[in-house]
Amino acid sequence: MKNRFSTVPYVLKWIAEGEHFQQDFKLRIDDARKISKTISAFSNTIGGKLLIGVKDNGVVAGIKPEEEYHMMVYAAERYCFPPVQLTFQSWKVDEKTILEVNVSEAINKPVLAEWEPENRSAFLRDHDQNILAPAVMLDVWRIDESERPEKFFYSEKEQSLLSALQSGENTLSQLCKITKIKRQPLQKILAKLIRWEIVDWRVQGGIALFELRN
User: Fold this and answer.
1) What residues does each domain of the chain span?
2) Helical H runs in the chain?
3) What pLDDT is recorded for position 206?
4) Helices 183-195 and 156-165 sit at what angle, rounded to 10 degrees?
5) What is the model's pTM?
6) 140 Cβ partners below 8 Å, 6+ apart?
7) Rounded to the nearest 5 degrees, what angle is found at the Cα of 160, between the Cα atoms of 154 and 161?
8) DSSP character at residue 41
9) Residues contacting 61, CB < 8 A, separation 6+
């Protein structure tokens, strides 16, 4: 763990930004299981950082960095599957110490978090929240990119789905209703089209939305 004993402008800039898609504040780490959800979410999205010793409103409270360091390492190694490698750096802000914890985007997704005993789930980042990864994304991650064909031959179901997506964003439930395709087969088709960059998706209010890529 690296230590920096003076504040640099970009640390204050991070705090001023507040919590967002790639940044989370924690006053301290009391529950290794609970923080594994954040590690999973950053790993499965595009990475991010935690600033420990900072309140939700951005007020710097300070912490003992060694204690928080060990809690984070324990969470990443014991409650994340596969284990996640974190990087750390401590900073002094107004004579108080905060710990910066960086989580890189995982090469092999998903990273699961055992957030409850014997309950492992994949999480994603949605604005400043950690949400359960939609089932369709689990299917996306299972598809090997090398399986992508040079040419696409759409079945009747795929054609029906693409036609429905031309109207704009739709939820999985809406697409099931429009296409008359059952949920599980529809998930598989969507996953393939997302993996092959034909369909885009995003999460809004914890609900996945799908649309054709422009």
Assistant:
1) 2-132, 135-212
2) 9-17, 32-44, 65-78, 135-142, 156-165, 172-179, 183-195
3) 79
4) 70
5) 0.89
6) 191, 194, 195
7) 90
8) H
9) 27, 53, 54, 55, 96
Find where tokens 């400043």 sit.
Answer: 128
Beta-carbon contacts of residue 120 (< 8 Å; ≥ 6 apart)? 81, 112, 113, 114
Amino acid at 2: K
Q: Which pLDDT tens digit goes with each residue over 149-162?
A: 656 667 888 899 99
Which pLDDT score is estimated for 85?
97
| Residue where the block lists tokens 């296409």 | 179
In this prediction, residues 138-142 reach a mean pLDDT of 92
Mean per-residue pLDDT for 137-155?
76
CATH code assigned to 135-212: 1.10.10.10
- Six-digit token string for 212: 């054709």
- Domain 2-132 = CATH 3.30.950.30: yes
